[in-house]
Amino acid sequence: MSASAEPYLVIDNVLKRFGSGPEATVAVDHMSFDVKPGEFVSVIGPSGCGKSTLFNIIGGLLGDYEGEVRVGAERISGPHPSIGMVFQEESTFPWRSVIDNVAFPLELRGVPKAERHDRAHHFIDMVGLSGFAKHYPSQLSGGMKQRVSIARTLVSEPQILLMDEPFAALDEQTRLLLGDKILQIQQQLNQTTLLITHNLTEAVQLSDRIVVMTYRPGRLKRIVNIDLPRPRTSEVVGSDAFGHYVAEIWSDLREEASSGMMDAETTAARRNRPRG
Amino acid sequence: MAATGTVTARKAAWLDLDAVAAPSRAAVAGVRVAVACGIIGIWEALSASGLFFGDVVPSLAKIIPAMLGLLGQDVFWTNLQATAWETVAALAIGAVAGVACGITLGANEFLRKAYEPFLYYFSPTPRIILFPIMIMWFGIGIESKIALGALASFFPIALSTAAGMRGIERVLIRVGRSFRASGWQMATKIYLPAMRVPVLTGVRLGFGGGLITVLLAETKLSNKGLGYLVMQYYQRFDMATLYGLLIILFVLAGVSNALIGRWERAGR
Amino acid sequence: MAERTRLRDLAPITVGIASLAAIAVVAELLLLAGVLNRYILPLPSDVLVALVRLVREEDILSRMGLTAFEVLTSGFLVILAGVPLGVLLYRFRLMRAALEDWLGALAAAPIVLAFPLFLVLFGRGPKTIIIISFVYGLAPVVLKTQEGLTATRRVHVNVGRSLNMTPAQMFWKILFPSALPTIFTGIRLSWTFCLVTVVAVEFLVNLGGLGHLINELAERYDMPGAYAAITFVILLSMGFFIVLERIQSWLQPER
Fold this sequence. Notes:
The structure holds three protein chains of three kinds. Chain A is an alpha/beta fold. In chain A, 37% of the residues lie in helices and 22% in strands. Chain B has one domain (68-266): MetI-like (MetI-like fold). β5 of chain A pairs parallel with β1 of chain B, so a sheet runs across the interface.
């Protein structure tokens, strides 16, 4: 992989329908944006706006879509080796120790044990889990498990790190601290990252640019540049500029989120007929 | 890494559970018919081959008439009645004792730690070997079968009740307390409804254990009951009727099990 | 601190064992006083003495060996046949949809009751007992293997897909390890069934091992002997179940 083959993720007019005929629903509607090398981009939108569908398309898990997702010049229609995915659900393997979890992608490639453990150790240290290599996931907290997943993805040195709400299940304080960790890693590796999230603070805290999506069908609402200085830490959440960005994006998002909420209420009302 | 071209997913569609449409009803029915025909075909082939001695593998043409003939005879119905009575009595005794014991163990942590391990590990032991003791205590009549059946159904019911009692969501109990429910109200409005499903699960398991134990005890030493009838046909070497009787028994056991299971699920 | 918690755990267990001993002592006293009938309940002390006699005169250890041989043979046959069948059932969804309920019904059916048939088909011998035990124990392993594979978490499969794993890698590195605890549970259930079936059939048809011994002693009206043998078999089975559980948790220290 030469240095000239610059990673450059392009989402070009992507459209995804589920079902066919008159019952088809459009989950992602003509989305276009891109991620430049070394950049941290977040996609934010209310629950149910098709963010996860977009994540699955970019990760190559949903091959059947219209438009193009390109890495370099390649159109993605299957998992691409230069994209590393981190999933929203807890995804460590409970039957493997931390080190064997992290070394897993290297094991698949047939890297000899000593070498893959060496490399895995490097990333375990990077996510701040030194000393836990021999532990099993059941002995770790939720935040630690998510860091194991991140290390497992980083170990294959993906050109693009693709994360789907990796901290959704964690409490706010842990989330902020893990945000610091991500900022640090991003700095250290100059890691091109695309984060899918519904969390405003998280998006502003971490991103260079934020892509705001509409609720159903998921369209591009607008792209906001976050001009907060780097290197950043979670302390940035106290600054005026931060508050300003959050307010700005919330005013965009509010309308979408409330229509999402109303939708959810109607569905619930329809589904939960009174019993008896 | 190639700069152009398309990266395609490996073909592993069978792993992708969502992507594979659920099999159609027609296909499922087709497979079932095919498997049933296959088994019957092999059976008839074995029967016709003469590989087995005498009438050991009788043709369905003999089994089915024998089975229908059995259903027309009083001997079947009186023995069914005996087994049914023994099983129901055993289940009743086992259920009352089991629920009482389960509630005691579920309510008291110390008692649970002291005695539940015995119940837990004793429960799956081969209870039929206690039959000689039951005969000494209760004689060779139906009492010894009821006693053994009760013993067999007691354990799963007690264990399941105790587990159900412990498994009640603590918050429901706190809700009850916050509304100042009385002890009786707590029992009837919170505990009992919340424990219905585990108790019924125990009853279903206890029924299965009780029935098989009663039947086995009847094969060992008795003068009535379907287990006794099984041994009669075995000793007379009336294989066709023996097969017929076993088929009826399996169906009866399956249907009763399914009925209790439905009652159990209705509680959810 | 650790010692105190250990003490707290030990206390109830001690009470449990002590109350069993107390029951035996009370029974002994009541029997000696003539309140209970010695022809119905032998003296617990006689039962203890009889246990020694069983080892010396009745060859209980070699009978135990025969029973163990029957249980283990059928148990390993169940694993050898059951796990692959479970994988097939998982792999072919149509088969699963069609046959899962039937297998469930088979698992719940009182197959042991068909022991006279097996005697006629395969003769009177350990082979027949092994076959009955195998048939009775098969369903749990098949069903649990299938259940474990089906319950593989979707996100684990997705991790595999995102890494472009081959189907073989997917099976050996994700599906199988993920299903393993459930498969072990199935094996434990099956082996429990196997032990119960072997002892029960030995008892019912007077064949071979420990079950046969109980029947013999009872028919000889050797009351202390019968009680001792029954106690021995029950303790042995309980030990067997405890060991199975220990093995299962030892095989998966991580969960």
